[in-house]
Amino acid sequence: MSLNDLIFLLPEIILATGASLLLIAPVTGLRDSISAKWAMIALLIITAGSLLACSWAVPGMEQTAGFARMFALDAFSIFFKLLFLFVVAIVVLLSDDFLRESRYSTWEYYSLLGFALCGMMFMASGVHLATIYIGLELLSLSSYILAGYYKNEQKSTEAAMKYFVLGAVSSAILLYGISLIYGVCGTLNLLDIARALSTVVSNDALMFGVILLACGLCFKIAAAPFHVWTPDVYEGAPTPITAFLSTGSKAAAFAIFVRIFYVALPGFHLDWSMVLATVAALSMIVGNLAAITQESVKRLLAYSSIAHAGYVLMGIVAMNVMGLRGVLVYSFVYVFANLGIWSIVLMMKRHEYAGEKVSDFEGLHSRSPFWAFSMFVFLLSLGGIPPTAGFIGKYFLFYAAVQAGFGWLAIIAVLMSAVSMFYYLRIVVAMYLRDGKEADVTASGALKFVAAVCVVATIVFGVVPNDLIDQVSSSAKGLHNKGAVTRNATR
Asked: Counting C-beta atoms within 10 Å of the first and last residue's C-beta, which end of the chain has fewer, N or C?
């Protein structure tokens, strides 16, 4: 391993080492949950600092690849890594009350979060299918355990078991697809795959491999018809972990989805675009229609996340600059809206499963006007209503689909967005038009901070989106250049 390779992997090495130390810390006699929290926060700060230092130390990031061309440190990966670090930092704050009151190990919890983050960071930088697969499995294995962290709760253990079994099947399908692609191309490097495919006009084994690869990735983003695990896992997992799965985990899957299909497979866009377009349409329809009948807020938001997976797939199907920017913008703004919603849900806590019913939000406006307003803003953002940040994300994605000739898909997306407002407004009606309950909202300082940051970001990026768009354009530039190179190679 060369010095350059160490520079490329320095944030991941620090994170993996720190997560391992967190795991063995109780053996040394450290059992204080406060110490564990601050140790995790320190680890995140050090990792973020090392990432920024490495990005400044490496020139020409748009074309930078190291570790035998398996790992990239480009603007695209740095954008997602910083987003992942932010998500995990917020999840740590959301977990404060949960861990203080629970009887489960705090150090193990933070260690698993650290390993999951490490897997996500490998996924964002992977330019080799082996690297991507290893990162994905590290994230998945950590997520299975975190989903079942209520060890003595039936719903939690059931959720973890379903997640594990279906996740193992999807991983096997994904690995089989990768093996078929390797058999045709003779390589797992994304750029080399694109070059190898430049001489392939049609190959059944290749297309079968691409479809299996897409199926495995669609499971990770909870796209229909690979979504059956989502409602049960969201409902059974601890609420902070549900927040993590619905934001960081999905964003990581979107990152590798974009990198694989945009860099390695643009020459076969016409072959797989209609398949993914159908999955996107099905996800939007199934997710939004199924959410209408839900009384559980967790299950409602689970079906909502399935629909949002369909929206993001539109940017991948479009395979243009607008679509690439749309995926990045939407991943960013979706994080704020979702984390904000989960922070409000946690404020409704009355038992281990927080704010589970829509009825729990009845009269929230009279008890806590600001948090009711914040929830309203987050729901508007998920619905894509201006002037929230969610409108900017959906604008990019819808316009990209129209620009790429998928106008029918954009029409479905607009109609399903209107449907989504029906069930989002059910929560708004409960908050503002129904009599409240006597119990006060339980809002710790950490929850208040998270909700306030998210509501400000959701409004600011919706009203003044220029800085976000500029940053996203810069982050997408390197990947767009690679995509342009591979498209030219396949002509």
From this structure: C
What pLDDT, on the 0 to 100 scale, is given for residue 486? Answer: 47
Phi and psi at residue 170, to the nearest 5°? -65, -35
Report if pTM > 0.85.
yes
- Rounded mean pLDDT of 227-234? 91
Nearest Cα residue to 189 out of 132, 227, 119 = 132
How far apart (Å, rounded) are the C-alpha atoms in residues 203 and 403?
Answer: 29
Compute the distance between CA of residue 377 and CA of residue 11 in angstroms, rounded to an integer: 35
Between CA 13 and CA 97 the distance in angstroms is: 30
Distance CA 432, CA 415 (A): 26
Residue 478, φ and ψ in degrees, nearest 5: -60, -45
Do 124 and 77 meet the contact criterion of CB atoms below 8 Å apart?
yes
Answer for the pair 259, 190: CB distance below 8 angstroms, yes or no: yes
For residue 26, give Cα distances in angstroms to 20, 21, 147: 12, 9, 22
CA angle 225, 227, 230 (to 5 degrees): 170
Listed as own residue / partner, the contacts of 160-169 with beta carbons closer than 8 Å and 24 or more positions apart are 160/233, 160/236, 160/237, 162/229, 162/232, 162/233, 163/229, 163/233, 166/219, 166/228, 166/229, 167/140, 167/143, 167/219, 167/229
In this prediction, residue 224 carries a pLDDT of 87
pLDDT at residue 489 tops 50: no
Q: What is the pLDDT of residue 58?
A: 64
Return the closest-CA partner of residue 13 out of 58, 43, 40, 37. 43
CB atoms within 10 A of CB 171: 18
Residues 65-103 have pLDDT tens digits of 666 678 888 888 999 999 999 999 999 999 888 787 777
Cα within 13 Å of Cα(206), Cβ side? 21
For residue 229, what are its two tokens?
């695990």
- Residue positions counted in the chain: 491
Please state the rounded mean pLDDT for residues 353-367.
77
Express each pLDDT in 5-43 by its tens digit: 777 788 999 999 999 999 888 777 666 666 788 899 999
